Amino acid sequence: MAGHHQQGEENLALDISDEGRCTKAETLSLKDTKLDITNEDFEDLQFETNVVTEKIEAFNKALADFVEDHQVTLRQCCYVIGFILYNVFFFGAIYHFTVASKPELQWCDGLGFLIIITIFVYTILFYFKVLKPSYSKFLESKLGVKFQDGIVDRIQISQEDLFRTRWAAPAVYLGIFILILTYLIIDTGGDRDRLKSFFGLIALVFLGFFFSKSPGKVVWRHIAWGLSLQFIFAVFIIKWAVGVAIFNCLGNKVSALLEFADEGSGFVFGYLVNQRPVFLDSLKNDSLAHGVFSEVYENGAMGFVFMFKVLSVIYFLSFLVSMLFYWGAMQWVVAKIGWMLQVTVGTTYCESMNAAANIFLGHTESPLLIQPYLPIMTNSEIHAVMTGGFATIAGTVLAAYISFNIDAAHLLSASVMSAPAALACAKLMYPETKVSKTKYSKNLALAKSNEANVLDAATRGASMAVFLVANIAGTLIAVLAFVAFLNGVLSWCGMLIGFTAEHPLTFELILGKCFIPLSWLMGVPTQDLEDVGLLIGLKTFATEFAAFSKLKTMVHLHPRSKIIATYALCGFSNLASVGISIAALSAMAPTRRGDITSVAFRALVSGSLACFMTACVAGCLISST
Q1: Which residues have a Cβ under 8 Å from the Cβ of 314 and sit 6 or more positions away?
Q2: 29: helix, coil or strand?
Q3: How distant, in Å, are the alpha carbons of 295, 298, 396 from that of 266?
Q4: Which DSSP category does 28 fall into?
């Protein structure tokens, strides 16, 4: 029997003929047939046709040919129809608002928010579809050529000649420093404690310079522009009323978007998410059980399971991001922000694109946009790519931090502010000493989606999130268990040298003491120095999840301390992320694994430095009261 089974495996065949009888000529051996086939490799079946089916097939073929021949025209018609329908809806909403008795117009909700979106979209369309093409045509004309040669080129040449002189660049950087310092002196009138954060920012820059791989080759344009952009973003986000309102609105919208994930996770996991294990409708209204559970639900006394409620949001966000990536919207936004960073900070194309992508994506997803160029990047560029990932957070895990009662507006602003800071710290800690092959973007393009359609992209994004959720959950379990183990060992050792059970020697206590100087440099109030130092230590040696979880329990912190800590913790710069980043980048560029590993630890320090600089800038602008 075993012999027949083995022989059947070796000579497995399907013998089928037209009459249902087996013939040797038509025997198909699966052993000799390739299994990686497509639909085109199959032969067509023969069918009898009639006049009706022939007419239908001819019509369908003619329709398909017409659509293929007039794709551009049909697409433009769809755009026009969509434009008309949207404007009918838009003006209908305005008419309804004016006719109906509505309260004052709210710019973050209802019609006001619709007006802002419309103006924003129409401005972008006007610039890219009308203004930019018209300017390009103008430059091709005779007058445009004269304008380019006579004015634009002369200004660029004069600027380059000016910065070739030894005194010009230092004078510009000194002027930027004086402007920022003057603004802070005026802004901190009566609240000089905030200047301590500015002193901390300068101290961190000098520490980065002192520990730089090549201090004599630092290009100060990268650092000056990176920190200047960070400061400009901070003033817009924290000090300007309009910027504060915009980011508060964005934070509210993000929080509202993430709440939709509860519909899916609640359907799958039930009361582990919605915190309602008992259906009140199934209980009598006057029963004791109905009264008890009603009070429990109203007061939120039933806790949720972190794994199923918070981490489940990652599936939803990964689903959305994958669709945006397939449509090219994500790449378009990243390219525009990256271009702005490239022309200001002066970093290369790939470095700038990756830094921009890290505002929205994680440290393993962002390099996918520049994956084709990773093998030809210099060590300094690879270091900048890793630093950008360590200095920011991913949009997909934003919900997890918000669940710890962290302000969504501060999380969003921290990611935006840390992007230029990451480039500045990367070039401070590891200056470029080689000629880059990715400096210019004329022949370089961002990666595109390889999925068959948007549904394929969305489902694949949700599937890939399974590994991310498992990674986060597994890391949290292991890290928190290890910290508890360390506390047990340290507590026992501490009792031998005089510590008590009420005040034991713990891992958190050691971290808090070690990072007190850094907390002071960031401008944390004196009474909270040790607590914020503990959070920084947990973030660095454990994970940012553990740190944010601990921050949630520190209700006694001064509001200024909590905000500074939020900015300092908002990044993936921890030891666990180093291994994840090395594995991800090595898979994308196997030939550069040695270089990736060699710069990883320095990139971790640079990413942490960028987070602390962001906290210092926020501390300069946040009132002590």
Answers
A1: 396, 397, 399, 400, 465, 468, 469, 472
A2: strand
A3: 21, 18, 19
A4: E
